[in-house]
Amino acid sequence: MFPEHRPRRLRGTPALRRLVSETTLRPRHLVLPMFVAEGNTEPHPISSMPGVVQHTRDSLRKAAVAAVQAGVGGLMLFGVPRVHDARGSGATDPDGVLNSALRDVRAEVGDDTVLMADTCLDEFTDHGHCGVLDASGNVDNDATLSRYAEMAVAQADAGAHVLGPSGMMDGQVGAIRQALDEARRTDVGILAYSAKYASAFYGPFREAVDSQLSGDRKTYQQDPGNAREALREIELDIAEGADAVMIKPAMSYLDVLSDAAEQSSVPVAAYQVSGEYAMIEAAVANGWLERERTVLESLTALRRAGADMVLTYWAADAARWLD
Ligand code: PBG
Q1: How far is the CA of 271 from the centre of ligand 1 (A)?
Q2: Binding residue per annotation — 206?
Q3: How far apart are CA 267 and CA 149, in angstroms?
Q4: Residues 6+ positions from 14 with CB-CB distance below 8 Å
Q5: ipTM score of complex
Q6: Do 57 and 36 touch, CB atoms closer than 8 A?
Q7: One GO MF term, please (predicted)?
């Protein structure tokens, strides 16, 4: 009798497939990144990310509640200030757009979900870099760390449960941990963007946060060809006190994600970024891909590769589809 081996046997019915399914994808695994813009009176669509908006303070609160009702595991907030300056002053202003939004959302959702904040200056600086610049216009690592420390404490005071330092400065996790501890905020966690690549897939995000950047971030973000370096970044971040680590972008970096999941002693996140969202939405708009199947397959792949959690702009939709 040939064939002797018949793997199809276990695929014959939904019940068989369910029984042998290796990977789970649940709403609790998903974190929704959200944008809030200062002074908006109406939610403002982001043309390169159909379905995603720059919220007003009010629409953000409502969308946050809806996402929590859908069961998402967390929310990650990004602020879009009206005024930018060299130091990114809005980032540390307790009444700045992001800190105000954190306060609003925390008041609304309490501890029902995990509220996270982007701890980075690029949304707030007039040059669009993730840190402050030195006299020659280079990003000044150590001067940036003190800005991050200040920003971290402001975000903790505003109600963030977890901070997401995304600037790829050396020592950022340690600097933030120390600042939080000195402010007696030992309860606030750090999700470190450990391996964040200098990626073309962040394109639509630039529109989402009205980025002022000209040039690139190659002196601080990683070279897309480097995998070993990602493991070093993870090791350093864990040593500095990271409670969880992240790989970003996601779909083009499954090998890095898989290695990270194997090596890491803390939970691992993957960030399915704006360009990944835009690619699939564009194909869906053309009738070339089915949204729900494609999105759920991409998220399942990230879980299979080892992500404990996934940041995705589809988090609320996917949570509803999974329900
Ligand atoms: C920096 C930051 C970026 C993203 C998240 N945090 C932009 C960048 O590094 O250029 C990109 C997220 C996305 O593309 O969805 N604060």
Answers
A1: 10
A2: yes
A3: 23
A4: none
A5: 0.96
A6: yes
A7: zinc ion binding
Query: In percent, how much of the chain has pLDDT > 90?
Result: 98
Task: Give the chain's domains with CATH numbers.
Answer: 24-322 (3.20.20.70)
Q: Which residues lie closer than 8 Å to 69 by C-beta, 6 or more apart? A: none
Beta-bridge mates of residue 115: 75
188-198 pLDDT per residue, tens: 999 999 999 99
Which of 35, 84, 120, 139 to mutate for ligand 1's pocket (most ligand atoms within 8 Å of CB)? 120
Distance between CA 115 and CA 121 in Å, rounded? Answer: 19
Q: Does 253 show up as a binding residue in the annotation? A: no
> What pTM was computed for the model?
0.97
What DSSP string describes 109-174? Answer: HTTSSEEEEEE-STTTBSS--SS-B-TTS-B-HHHHHHHHHHHHHHHHHHT-SEEEE-S--TTHHH
pLDDT in tens, 62-109: 999 999 999 999 999 999 999 999 999 999 999 999 999 999 999 999
Cis? peptide before 249, omega within 30° of 0 = yes
Per the CB < 8 A criterion, the answer to whether 195 and 234 are in contact is yes
Residue in this structure with the two tokens 């299979």, named with its chain if needed: 304
Mean pLDDT of 196-221: 94
Q: Is residue 184 classed as helix, strand or coil in its secondary structure?
A: coil
Using the predicted structure, report yes or no on whether residue 14 has a pLDDT greater than 90. Answer: yes
Place of tokens 């999105």: 295
